[in-house]
Amino acid sequence: MRIYPYFPEWYWGIAGIIAYFGNETKEALGHFDKVIQPSAVVLFTAVSAAQEMNEPERALELIGRLKEVVPDANTDLFRNARQINSYKDPAMMGRLLDAANAAGLEW
Fold it and tell me: How far apart are alpha carbons 102 and 106 in whole angstroms?
């Protein structure tokens, strides 16, 4: 990134999702903070990461941002979303959904 400072902005969202599922939750949040226009999937994962890092205020703020992108966002929507349900490990998917629900994103 130092060699090419104009790399795609979406990189940070993907890096955050990878870090989250690699159990590097703090690192994931750092990556998510660098995303200028996060997708719904990035915001949803960031909500779960913030909740797991015991940052409930941050999780609620991220839920608000998520609702701006997808007004009817809930955990069922993401459980069935093609971008997320491609994760094959049910335990990891459960972790993501449970943390988002604990943060206040309703089923």
Answer: 9
Angle between helices 90-103 and 56-69 (to 10 degrees): 100
Residue 25's nearest CA partner among 1, 47, 56, 40 is 47
Domains of the chain: 11-103 (1.25.40)
Model confidence, pTM: 0.86
Q: What is the pLDDT of residues 54-89, one digit of tens each?
A: 999 999 999 999 999 989 888 887 777 655 655 677
CA 8 to chain centre: 18
Q: Report the C-alpha gap between 88 and 47 in whole angstroms.
A: 20
Assess contact for 60 and 103: CB atoms under 8 A.
yes
Q: 19: Cβ–Cβ under 8 A, 6 or more apart, which residues?
A: 25, 27, 28, 31
